[in-house]
Amino acid sequence: MEETIVGHTALKAGIDIALYDILGKDAGLPVYQLLGGASNSIKTDITISIGEPEQMATEAQQYVSSGFSQLKVKAGIDPHADEQAIQAILNTVTPTTEIKVDANQGWTAKQTIAIMEKFKGTNLDAVEQPLPYWQHEQNKLIRQSITQNLMLDESVHSPSDAMTAIKNGEADLINIKLMKSKGIFGAEGINKIAESAGLNCMIGCMAETSIGICAAVHFAAAHSNVAYCDLDSFMMFKQPKWLLDKGFTQEQDRLQLSDKPGLGINVNF
Ligand SMILES: [Mg+2]
Asked: How far apart are the CA of 25 and the centre of ligand 1, in A?
């Protein structure tokens, strides 16, 4: 179907999510059940922002001590500093902590291969979007040269992007974000294509509040092919308790959905 309004994917996601909430309420089902209902809870990682390597390592250890077992380390400004930060984190956190590095389109293929070679055999198990989103050809070369998984984020916004990337052998994992995919409907398409090709997905976030995150938790919980969740943005917001019942509860790294119909969110106007 040709779109009359191009872009504005986050705005479209808001409408899509509201429609899934209505569909769920109409059917008397929580959205995760409406979508197939593999589970009603998920485990999320937590993001370590770029800073001084020692400070990043301290922050990482604090999160691990408070119950997180998966970390996403932001990188991509200075490959040398990124390497130091990854090393400092690996030296500091519990050995079972799973680590992914998100280079946010900031590395070259050569830098990516060298950095991942350095951390071969460690708990750093994936690199996310090292190259600019439009640089497709070298992703295949990276995959052939590293032992860790290559995850695409900015290169995949839609089911057709996912189809192209997978056909060209560019990815081991795809990071789906509802704000890129225009909501749950687009995310379903990306995940189905990935699953058919034997690839797992991560569901990530931009800077959504708990409403957007709740929709993403429903989507992730419904699909066993969504192997990883990076749904931590709501933790950065101050949220007055009286405003809304956010549809899920958090215990350490686990987000547990309510079994109320739709998203399960109550807004107290
Ligand atoms: Mg990313």
From this structure: 32
